[in-house]
Amino acid sequence: MEFHYKDSACVSDDEIKALSSSLSSYIEHLREIAEHDTYDEPECSIFLPYDNDLYEQIIRAKEEKISSRLKYVVVVGIGGSNLGTKAVYDALKGHLETLNPNQFPKLLFADTTDPESISYLSNLLTTETKDFSEIVINIISKSGETLETIVNAEAILQHLKAKFGENIIHRIVITCGIDSPLWKSAKEQNITILGIPETVGGRFSVMSAVGLFPLSAIGFDIDKLRMGAQDMRKTCLNKEMSENPALLSATILFKQAKDGRTINTNFIFNPRLESLGKWYRQLLAESIGKNGIGLTPTVLIGSTDLHSVAQLHLDGPKDKVVTFISAKTDSNESVPNERIFPNIRIEVTGKKLSDIVSATLESTKEVYKKKKIPYTEVVLQNISESSLGAFLQFKMLEIMYLGKLFGVNAFDQPAVESYKTATIDRLKQE
Amino acid sequence: MEFHYKDSACVSDDEIKALSSSLSSYIEHLREIAEHDTYDEPECSIFLPYDNDLYEQIIRAKEEKISSRLKYVVVVGIGGSNLGTKAVYDALKGHLETLNPNQFPKLLFADTTDPESISYLSNLLTTETKDFSEIVINIISKSGETLETIVNAEAILQHLKAKFGENIIHRIVITCGIDSPLWKSAKEQNITILGIPETVGGRFSVMSAVGLFPLSAIGFDIDKLRMGAQDMRKTCLNKEMSENPALLSATILFKQAKDGRTINTNFIFNPRLESLGKWYRQLLAESIGKNGIGLTPTVLIGSTDLHSVAQLHLDGPKDKVVTFISAKTDSNESVPNERIFPNIRIEVTGKKLSDIVSATLESTKEVYKKKKIPYTEVVLQNISESSLGAFLQFKMLEIMYLGKLFGVNAFDQPAVESYKTATIDRLKQE
């Protein structure tokens, strides 16, 4: 992974240095946590990629539940319980699924309680399978009682029970907090359970069973995902500012927010990474948005959304700090030499599409620089388990640093209880 | 369509009245344009749903190109050339496609020059069809030389030519500006052409051939789409403020932006409408984002993104004005009475999923109101051609009023030329 900021972040090296220095004791603290290999501290998610017991537990659950007949793993979960999994899945496979519909196994996602999505999903599961060994239902909820997750799980399972009978419960894997309501109910019914450590918050849980089980179940190499995260943890615990992209990125976002640029545009020049952007949207919004402060993350796809919001970016309010994200590709897809419309845009004749994407990105950066719109740039070496694991870890550490700089607790989300309680109260009254 | 704002928009009726009054001569102007039925003025897109010549031209092109064998219509276009079409398609069909893969015909979209998307798309078209009558390639570009559109069209067509031969050009429909480079080249080769009036900008063009041809080609009732827009045009040209939702919405967005709430969150409580939100994102960003002012639109899905950004919304900076969008549904999908986990969330036992969505939306509004986060609410009667046509027209007129209030030209986008020119220059040098 490359991280670029020089001449574009509009923050001086002295300012970055001063802010980085203020974090030196926190880096020290994180390095100690990293050595402990336990789940005691709020930052303990950084141990997940090193947790070999966890890894073996995932592999056992996989061996128990998954055969070559598998067609569908349904992830029933919302927010931190599915965003990381969806980020990795869509990047490696999901985004291209509409264009490649016959490749199995697939991950399917049920998050909000949309009746039509649940009907269509249940219909697919009951009409496109012959045997229940083709299905796994992975129900994921840290609290073990998330409203949407419980509702969707019950609605889907009733359809499966009607087709496959009571034994469908053997196709369930529960991922939840230890001793939560779901944990207890699953124990009683002998349903397979994977635990989520109490101190690992949903938005930091992608490297726990939350992400590792479904991603492993459909055949992704979760060991490479872990390795990518392990390497990046080392890099992002480096005390040397210039060698630590998480530290650099956090200080730049902080300084720009202080100067009024409180919208963080994640401008992703690869449509496969849109869900990765949405994963980060939760991470940034929920970790830092408190006590009247916070950055508002937005996710844009290049070049698509240049045709949608570039006008606003280039000539609107000066309230945005941009993170360009791209990935190298080795595709040879090209504009042919023998063309249907040979006289239109002759400059693209024979050019590779990847070079056209690069030219657009480079030119966009050039124009943003001229307009003094501050930006940093992240370049993934490719789109693979390893590069995605690295990116996820980079961003989780960036957010920990950012929380310290803002002086907020990056690990809680006290305000979300209000609408949840109001919803439950309303349902109880109905 | 319902529009609600009382007690929630945090703008007094007197303020709304004063702002509305300032627009009375503009409403008069729009009403005159509406009577003229020509394409002279920048606002002339409001004539499109009434243009019967256009409608007949679409029907003729459809009769010429489309048979019952049709499987795929590929929309090759970007920004204003595909966002409206994608909004309607995803709402009616596209969003549920992954869960309902065997229903044809389908729309496929090629916008950015992503090499892998284009390879997969071309592979699908050549392996999943037997005959070229199963395919239509609709190339859409107002300028007739949009970089991404030309690149993608050439890349896709080379693969189709390799399988189907030179005659593949008879499966092309070009939608472009009259006398543009694409128009001329298509004329020379006897390719079917549909024109876009010079004065209709991309983001206002969904009711032109840009949207109507592909939506009609795959069997949607574009007459109902037009009727929905026609009815809404009448409503949104009403001089009586309280009867005119476009006027109300524009004045509220304007007043809130003046008070520092420059982020417009479109919080959509139905995942099928996400692309409709993205269509509006361009409409708002590109029309109003100029001269240092502008609102930044964001698109969120409820309840999914409550689990992602609610913390930021409820306890972060006071910079957001929210538009809740939902649609009534008649689905009976429910949580069963005989449950797998009967003791968890007993309040949902036997409840309809649509009622759970409603309870979540109502509770969210209740909490936003308590926190004094200003919002308006749009409720569609259902998701149909008619209700979508109405919504599209509502928002296009809202933006015209908003442009007037801000004193900006809502119909140009001068800043986007910079990155386009820089990209072309770079490609010429390579």
What can you see in these coordinates?
Two copies of one chain form a homodimer. The first copy, chain A, has helices at residues 13-22, 24-36, 52-65, 83-92, 115-127, 147-164, 181-188, 209-217, 222-236, 245-258, 274-288, 306-315, 353-370, 385-406, 417-429; strands at residues 2-4, 72-76, 106-110, 135-141, 172-177, 192-196, 263-268, 296-301, 320-327, 375-380. Chain A is of the alpha/beta class and 430 residues long. Chain A starts with a strand and ends with a helix. The first copy, chain A, has two domains: 2-30 and 226-415, Rossmann fold (3-Layer(aba) Sandwich); 37-220, Glucose-6-phosphate isomerase like protein, domain 1 (Rossmann fold), CATH 3.40.50. The first copy, chain A, is 47% helix and 13% strand. In chain A, helix 10 crosses helix 14. The first copy, chain A, has a five-stranded mixed β-sheet, with helices on both faces. Chain A has a five-stranded parallel β-sheet with strand order 3-2-4-5-6, sandwiched between helices. Chains A and B meet through helix 5, helix 6, helix 7, helix 11 and strand 8 of A and helix 5, helix 6, helix 7, helix 11 and strand 8 of B.
